[in-house]
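Morning. Coffee machine broken again, so started the prediction first thing and wrote up yesterday's gels while waiting. Chain of 172 residues, entered below exactly as on the submission form.
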Amino acid sequence: MKIADGEEIIVRGPHIFAGYWNRPEESSRVLRDGWFHTGDQGEVNSHGNWRIIGRIKNLIILNSGHNVAPEPIEDNIAQHLPAAQHVVIVGNGRGYLCALIAGTTESQAVQSALDAVNPALPHYRQVRNFTVVRESFTPENGLLTANGKLRRDAINARFASEINSMYDRKPQ
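Came back before lunch.
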């Protein structure tokens, strides 16, 4: 195992499969130079323990060029917001990050959570604005997969006006 470009975890060895059955294009996309590209973004600590911190396809690339894995930030904020159904970080191609908070959480609670989380983050990973949306994210309305994972493209499309208004307001 090793870390490649974009902090992607790649692996190789006799335990890695030879490719997807009858899908050579997909196989060539993930199997390169003997390495299996997992699509997971990760890190390894000084003891050799590995940790997955996000998915490469979910990376937010700010207009500054910084790459941000949204999952660790979302998880950290959600720990401070028990009434929130979901926390979704947005900001691809923008100057800073914002958050959509789904659920019955009050704005003051969200601001308190951001005040607790942001100081430990580098400036480009800090969440500057947020909007609370009352609509539930479910597989039935297309905002979650059947496994309960966020459908980020669908969420960005459904809440485009709310996202744009966060960027029209002065960052907090």
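The chain has two domains: 2-57, 60-168. Going to sketch it on the whiteboard this afternoon.
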